[in-house]
Design a protein that fits this description.
The complex is a heterodimer of chains A (508) and B (358). Chain A has 508 residues and is α/β, with parallel strands linked by helices. Chain A contains 16 helices and 21 strands. In chain B, 70% of the residues lie in helices and 3% in strands. Chain B has 14 helices and two strands, in the order βααααααααααααααβ. Classes of the chains: A alpha/beta (508), B mainly alpha (358).
Chain lengths: 508, 358
């Protein structure tokens, strides 16, 4: 143990009913390091950083910040002591300006003019260009993140915690972020960087603490290990290989022709002349940062939003005017991104949730009367085949963890043997093991002669699954390109580069 | 310091316990109120909740229980379906009045003919009248996004004016010596809705309420449409994803609750009330809202809640007669009941925790 550590934790433990989230965690962060906290969902990363940020009180263990004992009662105390945090989900008010949002997040906001000048200084210094007067609603995800970072930096933190910051960024935007982080580290602010993206950590972090099941597995230099070794430490065993074999493109199944849809709400995106053709046995990967028409495209395909006649056809049959029920009967199924509230009703049992979408194809309610036994059997089958961890089919959807519910939602559609399945963010917030299982199920579906359209922000996932790749940006869909031989740079450009954000200049 | 912590799911025990707690709290507060007003609180509570069933004159008041509970349950069944879907029909009172007028119109047009078809035709007309009045807020919501809460409520007052117009104008009894009000349908055998078994209070409206209870139970727990209605109330986007068209659901729910309220109005006009007067609307449509919530929007609960509310009506009348209590007593009781129910409902969705501040 070196004495000059910025932050040190010893024996931190936190038990929730039924689960030991943190189990005697000890690690330290050195000055000027970008320190990665690596682990699957449920490994205890969130609990650990919430403890450091004063949101969770540990049951046992002690912490030191700058050599002083550190025991924050709440986030105010943590910020006062020099800990800043940038959350994965932004807490910004869309209708307010950048400066107003930053002032709202500070414990003691300075006068407006002084604040504006301090924002300008910080953004200049760290290459985070931001216009304090702009409205949040007009900013890209990368720019919103800058607002959060500047807000955290205004507290002069000694330790800055970043929770999965690149999950919403394009590759180019991520590069800009890392340049900023390196500069911060060089100026003496240590970064605690949470992620499960191995390549990113290997490329940018000085040190990595790997968590699994609430315990520290190793604390090491990530550059000394291969991504495969890190993954093995993370999941505790070899990663399952994805099997892409056994697929051959067949006849055209689904065709979307010149689909234009006005935005459904003020914050929505309109679809602009979207066209695509997909074939039996094929996986089409659609990339892009969320909010660029992904939800609208899924709704237009699922039948939630009907479109002008002739714009959506399945094996020649015009489905554009049809609702979700008729489209399911025809074999066009979908699994939306938002699990609770869109794909499933939170308060409904799994059986009732199965009835929501599987009634037509599985004949679960002939003449309208529900066959509860058959619905239960189908639900049991989904639970068994997709390894959904739940007490049973009567459990409410909201009682399931995100990953388990996602397995259920995907399984519910896959087991209905669709002709075409459209999924949005199929593995968002799902741990690596479950994600691999979901991806394999989607590939098996394609191998069986169906077609799968995967909409996702996760480029690794898209490249792993897709035969062809296209980008959805501002409601426009690019021409598809074969995934074979596509470089990350090219993909970044297809996604609109750094999304036309104000250009960053970082001297690193 | 006490804090509220959201529960992951609403325990059945609390769902059953909160209506009972609300009733008890209402009794206690009522007793306190009566005490402050100078009445004997124990006697007052006994007069309202005990005497109608087991008191000296219970033989007269007991049949009234079903007479009053029938329309409440019939209306509440329809409302509960809509409330489950998040469609708030507050105007059942207006649909009740319009159903009564439409049904009575058929009878008055047929008078003095006799025929087996007259009463069934009145039921259909009553349901149609209530349905039509319910479709006005439904269409305004679907076409213009108007709030069905406000529109349906405002239409109550329009319906009351129409009832007054009918009583003084087109429907006035030509043999009524100029008194306002229609012919008394209970004295017109083809159109009458009499007590079927003497001493029970059972009339066709009570039978209809029993069918409605069973029908709503089948719809909500056995039919795919009921599942979709519940989905729409809990997660509108999920319901849409499942294939529910929001506009069709609005029309269905307001139409159904309107038709049931209209039927209740007809049975009342042809039976206990006997005629259309300017004060035909007696508040059943509003009280049924309390019945629906007190019964947890479940058919069985609605039966129990309907009987309880009927009891407060009768008990209030007796208290007025025996103890000279003000007529507003019943309304105060019903208001308190809804207030406490909504208050205690917090306990089903949250647990109260003592926060240890370190």
């Amino acid at each position: 143990m070196s004495d000059n550590a910025i932050f040190r934790a010893e024996g931190l433990s936190k038990t929730y009913p039924g689960v030991k989230a943190n189990d005697a965690i000890s690690f330290e962060v050195r000055p000027g390091d970008i320190h990665a906290l690596l682990g699957e969902n449920g490994a205890g990363k969130s609990t650990l950083v919430k403890t450091i940020y004063g949101l969770v009180r540990p049951d046992e263990g002690r912490m030191w910040l700058d050599g002083q004992p550190f025991d924050p009662a709440d986030p105010h105390a943590a910020r006062a002591a020099g800990v800043g945090m940038v959350f994965q989900h932004f807490s910004l008010f869309d209708a307010m300006s950048v400066a107003e949002n930053i002032a709202l997040g500070l414990d003691h906001p300075p006068p407006r003019r002084e604040l504006a000048s301090r924002i300008a200084t910080l953004s200049e210094e760290y290459g985070l260009p931001l216009n304090p007067a702009r409205r949040i609603a007009d900013l890209s995800a990368g720019e919103r993140q800058r607002v959060e970072i500047i807000r955290a930096l205004l507290g002069n933190p000694r330790l800055l915690i970043m929770d999965e910051p690149t999950s919403v960024l394009t590759p180019q935007e991520a590069e800009i972020l890392f340049a900023t982080l390196r500069k911060l580290a060089a100026n003496g602010t240590s970064i605690l960087y949470i992620s499960h993206k191995l390549e990113e950590i290997r490329a940018n972090c000085d040190h990595a603490t790997i968590l699994r099941g609430g315990r520290v597995i190793d604390s090491t230099d990530p550059r000394a290990h291969s991504a495969r070794e890190l993954a093995a430490m993370m999941v505790g065993g070899e990663m399952r290989e994805i099997d892409r074999s056994g697929r051959s493109p067949g006849a055209e199944l689904l065709a979307v022709r010149d689909l234009t849809l006005a935005a459904q709400s003020v914050d929505g995106t309109s679809l602009k002349s979207v066209s695509l053709q997909v074939h039996a046995g094929e996986v089409l990967a659609i990339g892009g940062v969320a909010g660029n028409g992904q939800e609208e495209l899924l709704s237009a395909l699922s039948g939630e939003i009907p479109s002008p006649a002739g714009t959506v056809t399945l094996e020649g049959a015009d489905l554009a005017r049809m609702g979700p029920k008729q489209r399911r009967r025809a074999g066009l199924l979908a699994a939306p991104e938002d699990r609770l509230g869109h794909a499933a009703v939170p308060g409904f049992s799994l059986t009732d949730n199965a009835l929501l979408t599987a009634t037509v194809r599985q004949g679960l309610a002939p003449g309208g009367m529900i066959r509860h036994g058959a619905a239960r059997d189908f639900t049991q089958k989904v639970i068994a085949e997709f390894d959904v961890r739940t007490p049973g089919p009567d459990t409410a959807a909201r009682a399931l963890s995100g990953g388990n519910l996602q397995k259920f939602v995907i399984g519910r559609e896959v087991l209905q043997a669709p002709r075409v399945l459209v999924v949005n963010q199929p593995t968002w917030g799902v741990d690596a093991g479950a994600a691999a299982a979901i991806r394999q199920a989607l590939l098996n579906l394609a191998a069986g002669g169906a077609c799968v359209i995967v909409i996702s922000q996760d480029l690794d996932e898209l490249l792993e699954l897709g035969d062809r790749f296209c980008a959805l940006n501002g409601g426009q869909l690019s021409d598809p390109r074969p995934v074979e031989g596509l470089s990350l740079d090219e993909i970044g450009l297809m996604l609109g580069g750094a999304h036309g954000t104000e250009v960053a200049h970082v001297d690193a | 310091m006490w804090t509220l912590e959201p529960r992951s799911d609403a325990p059945l025990l609390w769902q059953l316990a909160t209506p009972v707690m609300a009733v008890i709290a209402t009794m206690l507060t009522g007793a306190l109120l009566f005490g402050l007003m100078g009445y004997d609180p124990v006697a007052a509570i006994r007069t309202i909740f005990w005497d109608p069933l087991f008191g000296a004159s219970a033989g007269y008041s007991r049949p009234q229980l079903l007479v009053k509970a029938g329309p409440l349950i019939l209306i509440a069944c329809g409302l509960a379906v809509g409330f489950r879907a998040g469609i708030w029909n507050i105007g059942a009172e207006g649909q009740y009045i319009m159903g009564g007028i439409a049904g009575a119109a058929v009878a008055l047009a047929a008078y003095p003919a006799e025929g087996w078809w007259i009463f069934p035709a009145m039921i259909v007309a009553g349901a149609a009248g209530g349905w039509a009045w319910g479709m006005i807020p439904a269409l305004l919501r679907n076409w213009f996004g108007a709030s069905e809460i406000l529109v349906s409520l405002m239409l109550v007052y329009v319906a009351q004016k129409i009832a007054a117009w009918m009583a003084f104008g087109p429907m006035r009894n030509p043999e009524g010596f100029g008194m306002p009000g229609s012919r008394n349908l209970s004295q017109y055998p083809a159109a009458a809705n009499p007590e079927m078994v003497p001493g029970t209070g059972i009339h066709w409206g009570v039978i209809a309420a029993a069918f409605a209870v069973f029908g709503v139970w089948v719809l909500m727990s056995r039919h795919i449409r009921g599942l979709q209605i519940r989905a729409a109330g809990e997660a509108p986007r999920a319901a849409r994803f499942a294939g529910v068209r929001p506009s069709a659901l609005v029309a269905f729910c307001l139409g159904l609750s309107g038709a049931l309220a209209g039927m209740a109005g007809l049975f009342e006009a042809a039976g206990p009330a006997g005629q259309i007067t300017d004060s035909f609307g007696s508040g059943y449509g509003f009280t049924a809202i309390i019945v629906a919530f007190l019964g947890r929007l479940h058919p069985v609960g609605i039966v129990l809640a309907g009987l309880l509310m009927a009891l407060t009506y009768i008990g209030g009348d007796i208290a007025q007669l025996m103890l000279q209590m003000p007529a507003a007593t019943v309304q105060v009781f019903q208001g308190m009941l809804l207030f406490y129910l909504l208050g205690f409902d917090l306990l089903t969705r949250y647990r109260i925790r003592r926060r240890i501040t370190a």
